[in-house]
Amino acid sequence: MLDLPIWNFDGSSTGQASSENSDVYLHPVALYRDPFTLGNNKIVLCETYKHDGTPSETNNRRTCNEVMKKATDFHPWFGMEQEYTLLDTDNHPYGWPKNGYPGPQGPYYCGVGASRVFGRDIVEAHYRACLYCGINISGTNAEVMPGQWEFQVGPCEGIVMGDDLWVARYLLHRVAEDFNINVTLDPKPMPGDWNGAGMHTNFSTQEMRDANGIVAIERAIDRLSKNHQKHIEAYDPNKGKDNERRLTGLHETSSIFDFSAGVANRGASIRIPRPVSDEKQGYLEDRRPSSNADPYQVSEILVRTVCLEE
Ligand code: ADP
Ligand code: MN
Ligand code: MN
Ligand code: MN
Ligand code: MN
């Protein structure tokens, strides 16, 4: 990493700087194998900095990394379930009839067959690209709404969670482009009786993973319950406005206005998976983050609340 130079680009073309003072600096932070050009070629993940050396507005990695360094002894692990929706180039969900709607939800989740599942070739190509890259991708599934999918990255410790997920998102858009298909991370692409898209975040510390870790899990849930609004504001890029359309209390979500927790409860803010409750150790699942949330913001606030007790 030290061998890679700091570089710069035209930030006025990306809404990150004015045209009179347009240079935005790229600081290399993580290296991946390039699944498109192969061989010795690399993809370099960078942080962005303004001309005066301060992080640009969208650089949430800087503070996340500081928090992860403070919390190294907790060994925080994350597993994020990234849901997304494939769209045709007319921005209509991929595989949906052009004049009307598919049959109601039910047969699509983890489905198989040409009338139930749309875009598996894209999903599989993306999965392979992530594996080649060195991203800790751990699975995929077709979602409840037709044309909607999920991939899971994790468990990843500390800052690696945000790094791997950002590169995995880039690869998804890039791979889908080759199929002439768009990807949206909008948390509620189709209003009405269609599931929205989230980024469930599974989280644990060493203490939670050890014997009788359920005590630490319950302590974490208590801390989370006292910081609900603060977390909601970090769980989408618009301080909760995007998630408002998704966290309605219907379609396997909790209400954005209330905090709740429960074993195996998919209508709660926090779910304790059944096996974790049985074995009294493991992790918790925060079901609130929106599909378009910044994984750096989500992992940072979880560590701040649960580990650093801020
Ligand atoms: P769901 O049943 O909610 O659909 P998934 O199987 O999609 O769950 O995702 C579970 C995620 O939890 C995976 O990304 C996995 O890596 C992650 N995970 C498993 N164990 C832990 C742990 N101890 N700490 C943090 N994340 C974990
Ligand atoms: Mn140039
Ligand atoms: Mn899942
Ligand atoms: Mn899901
Ligand atoms: Mn989940």
Automatic annotation (TrEMBL):
Lineage of the species this protein comes from: Eukaryota, Metazoa, Ecdysozoa, Arthropoda, Crustacea
EC number: 6.3.1.2
Transmembrane regions listed in the UniProt entry: none
Catalytic activity: L-glutamate + NH4(+) + ATP = L-glutamine + ADP + phosphate + H(+)
A GO term, aspect molecular function: ATP binding
Assigned keywords, A-Z: ATP-binding, Cytoplasm, Ligase, Nucleotide-binding
Domain GS catalytic, chain residue ranges per copy: 60-310
Subcellular location(s) of the protein: Cytoplasm
First-tier enzyme category under EC: ligase
SUPFAM superfamilies in the cross-refs: Glutamine synthetase, N-terminal domain (SSF54368), Glutamine synthetase/guanido kinase (SSF55931)
Domain GS beta-grasp, residue spans: 1-53
Gene Ontology biological process terms from the UniProt entry: glutamine biosynthetic process
Annotated Pfam families: Gln-synt_C
Annotated region (Disordered), positions in chain: 272-294
Family as reported in the entry's similarity comment: Belongs to the glutamine synthetase family.
Gene3D superfamilies reported for this sequence: Glutamine synthetase, N-terminal domain (3.10.20.70), Glutamine synthetase/guanido kinase, catalytic domain (3.30.590.10)
Protein name as it appears in the record: Glutamine synthetase
